[in-house]
Amino acid sequence: MSRAFNFCAGPATLPEAVLKQAQSEMLDWRGTGMSVMEMSHRSDEFVAIADKAEKDLRELAGISDDYAVLFMQGGASSQFSTIPLNLLGDKASADYVNTGVWSKKAIAEAKRYGSVNVVASSEDSGFSTIPDQAAWNTSADAAYLHYTPNETIGGLEYDFIPESGGVPLVADMSSTMLSRPLDVSRFGLIYAGAQKNIGPSGLVVVIIRKDLLGKARKETPTMMNYQVIAENGSMYNTPATYSWYLAGLVFEWLKEQGGVQAMAEINARKARKLYDFIDGNDFYANPIDPRFRSWMNVPFTLADDALNGDFLKGADARGLLNLQGHRSVGGMRASIYNAMPEAGVDALIGYMAEFAKERG
Ligand code: PMP
């Protein structure tokens, strides 16, 4: 068996050690005679698995008791509506920053529930930069300020946490969660779809400051009501048990790697190598303002789009998979999340150099 280097943006590669552990526990989890997939979510065994995952995540991300950690379903996209339903309260509007495809989706969904004030947008630049916060048109009376720290498709990442004054700051951390240390206390709510740095798809982790619970509109579906989910330990209904277990294994793996500080050093190095190579080679280009280049998603184009097919074919043949860029932007994209080993980035750079030499 040989594992490829999978550069998919999500579902993304998982640590091999985690998959092996899941494999070894698949038929019989620690003498219970059953797979975690088959356990009652109310069983002592599963409750212990769930509690351990939450505890490890709290430790890794530095989440204090002022915050509830929720393991919800429906992916990050369901949060685009869950957030306004829960947080708009009696406020007239919410503030949103538009930096790309995922911000836009969040904005479009929030507009169904209230008035949205787009405080800044980098659309004019083709979403190649982050608008300077000094020029944001924020409102001190907004229900919350929403932004997307890492735009997975554009490969655009904030290098700062916005100042939101007394307004709760809400962040879609789907593709940057746990990639580096984070001051959680700056946020009202953080959410992250699991399928990049956390585990299997479907699961979405929500970290919410407890004073923001209990503000949901009356018509909010029960399954989307943060207070209900928090009061029931994310087990109001049957949670995504296997995904939760796998996320727990990923958290344990992260702790063994030295936590998010150690990951940050490796991630910074992986990203720097790849961008340095792209910048140093006339055949490849990355369109993003260097200050705001994503550590996790690296889009790049070839000097001639007509060569894209050959590039991908050669990459596949070398076990470098899923490098095609998102259909909305074209070109290539290498997603290099926590679980992508540095050797994968080295192999990609080696192939890119070879291809440019032969075909450039
Ligand atoms: N936000 C961001 C930043 C994403 O990258 C994604 C998925 N690529 C989503 C939201 C949507 O996630 P999901 O498919 O889990 O709904």
CATH topology of the largest domain: Aspartate Aminotransferase, domain 2
**Count of helical stretches:** 9
Percent strand equals 15-25%
- The spatial strand order of the largest sheet comes to 2-10-9-8-5-3-4
Descriptive overview:
Helices cover 34% and strands 16% of the residues. It has 360 residues and is α/β, with parallel strands linked by helices. A seven-stranded mixed beta sheet has the order 2-10-9-8-5-3-4. Strand 6 (150-151) and strand 7 (156-157) form a beta hairpin. Helix 1 (16-24) crosses helix 6 (241-256) and helix 7 (259-279) packs parallel to helix 9. The longest helix is centred in the last third of the chain and has 21 residues, at 259-279. The structure holds 4'-deoxy-4'-aminopyridoxal-5'-phosphate.
